[in-house]
Every structure is written in structure tokens, then in C-alpha cells.
Amino acid sequence: MIHIEADSSHIALALKQLQAAAADLAPAMADIAATLWERVGERFEAQSDPLGKAWEPHAPATLKSYPKDGNRRILDRHGTMLDSLDRRADATSAMVGFGQPYAAYHEYGTNKMPRRGLLFADPEARQLAPEDEQLVIEKISKHLQGAIG
After folding, report:
1. CA angle 91–92–96, rounded 5-degree value
2. Are 111 and 56 in contact (CB under 8 A)?
3. Prediction pTM value
4. What is the four-CA torsion angle of 119, 125, 129, 134, rounded to 10 degrees?
5. How far apart are CA 2 and CA 135, in angstroms?
6. What is the residue-level pLDDT of the chain in tens, covering all 149 positions?
């Protein structure tokens, strides 16, 4: 094997910048959280899960029980669940979720209610949709590429 060593201040600088960017992932995590937060909001508009499958329509009994001042949209009776959609990020994580505890019933479904996914393609496996995964990878790549110019 041939071994060649190069003394390059440009490469050394790029490696230092990459190391610094990898040490501070807070900006990337904030970007990831904002992107996923926006995607979940779009799912309310499209009324579909992370894989693009349309949510099951309301059951007739649900429609009968809807308040007159309700929105009549799936998962949007009064807008409180969507209003509780929040995001947080720090140096090691990006989080998106709902402040309303009943959001979990919609994410997973129940014996009496179909699943109407918002966050995960597969909530049991805690897997994002492939498109969401790709966006996260793109955000990480963008952050690291920006660090070295």
C-alpha cells in the first residue's frame, strides 16, 4: 500500500469546521423540528397520514355528536389538537408532538377508532415516513456542508 501524507491548511481548516459543526447540532435540530412540525400541520390540511393515505372519514355517530360550532373536519373539531402542536430542539434532539393527550389515540388508533396517523408511518416501530426521513437527512447534510463552505 502506498501511503501519502499531505500538509494542507485548507483541509485542516475544513476538518476543524466539520468537527465544530458536529459538536453543535442545535441549529440542525431546530431546522429538523421546524420542518417536521410544518409537515404535520400539512397533514391536517391534506387529511392524510405520513405515507399519504387518506384518513378514514368520520363515523356516522361521530358526525351526529359534532357540536354545531365545530369545524366538521377530521381531527379538527375545534382546532385544539392542531393548536397544541409544538416543537422543541436542543443540541441532541428534535421533538414534535401535541399538548393534547388524546392525540395519541389518533396516532395509534383504538378498538373503536381507526388510526389517523400524524407523526409516524409506523407508530409501533416509531418510524418516520421515508419522505420525512429523507428531509431529516437533507437537513443534517445541509448543516454539515454549510460548516465547511
Report:
1. 100
2. no
3. 0.83
4. 110
5. 39
6. 766 566 677 777 777 877 877 778 899 999 999 999 999 999 999 999 999 999 999 888 888 888 777 777 888 777 889 999 999 999 989 999 999 999 999 999 999 999 999 999 999 999 999 999 999 999 988 988 887 76
